[in-house]
């Protein structure tokens, strides 16, 4: 038969192990849920960045399509020359307004022409948005005239920041 003293000794040892074990289990659950929450936030952030990049690419492509749409009729004459010479072509393209092809508006975003460089039946178009996004497109020209037949794939341009003195 066990004495009263021996029974009390064993019960106090068991009681002393339960609290640290419960705290350790709670800490593991808390750590796991914090990790899952962090992963969810990271995934959401990546999704938001990806969506912003797709929207920016869509705006740039829309700007290139707008340029192609404007480069018709009397303005199509300008496509045979680099944009750096457009202001000097008053006699060759009398009815063309170079300013019309140098800037436009796409859904509240202003696009600007960086440059246009023709090369036979194609040309390289470089545009920028007011937000700072820039891209280049290869445009296929119609062999019968100088209208744009197709706007090629977008090639993002890296924006180089100017060094501060």
Give structural notes.
- It is built from 1 helix and 5 strands, in the order αβββββ.
- By secondary structure, the chain is an alpha+beta fold.
- A 5-stranded antiparallel sheet has the order 1-2-3-4-5.
- A hairpin with a 4-residue loop joins strand 3 and strand 4 (134-141).
- The radius of gyration is 33 Å and the shape is rod-shaped.
- The model is unreliable at 160-165 (pLDDT under 50).
- Given the structure, what is the number of helices? 1
What does the main sheet amount to?
A: 5 strands, antiparallel
Q: List how many beta strands DSSP finds.
A: 5
Output the radius of gyration: 33 Å
Adjacency order of strands in the biggest sheet: 1-2-3-4-5
Distance between the termini: 91 Å
- What is the chain-wise order of helices and strands? HEEEEE
| Secondary-structure content class | alpha+beta
Q: Could you tell me the strand content as a percent range?
A: 15-25%
Average pLDDT metric = 82
| Anisotropy-based shape | rod-shaped
């Amino acid at each position: 038969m066990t004495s009263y003293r021996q029974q009390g000794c064993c019960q106090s040892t068991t009681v002393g192990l339960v609290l640290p074990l419960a705290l350790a289990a709670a800490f593991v659950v808390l750590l796991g849920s914090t990790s899952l929450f962090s992963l969810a936030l990271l995934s959401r952030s990546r999704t938001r960045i990806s969506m912003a990049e797709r929207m920016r690419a869509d705006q740039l492509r829309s700007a290139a399509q707008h340029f192609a749409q404007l480069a018709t009729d009397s303005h199509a004459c300008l496509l045979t020359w680099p944009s750096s010479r457009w202001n000097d072509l008053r006699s060759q393209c009398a009815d063309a307004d170079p300013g019309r092809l140098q800037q436009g508006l796409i859904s509240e975003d202003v696009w600007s022409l960086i440059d246009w460089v023709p090369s036979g039946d194609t040309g390289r178009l470089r545009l920028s948005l007011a937000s700072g996004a820039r891209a280049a497109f290869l445009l296929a020209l119609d062999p019968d005239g100088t209208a744009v037949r197709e706007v090629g794939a977008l090639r993002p341009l890296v924006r180089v920041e100017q060094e501060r003195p």
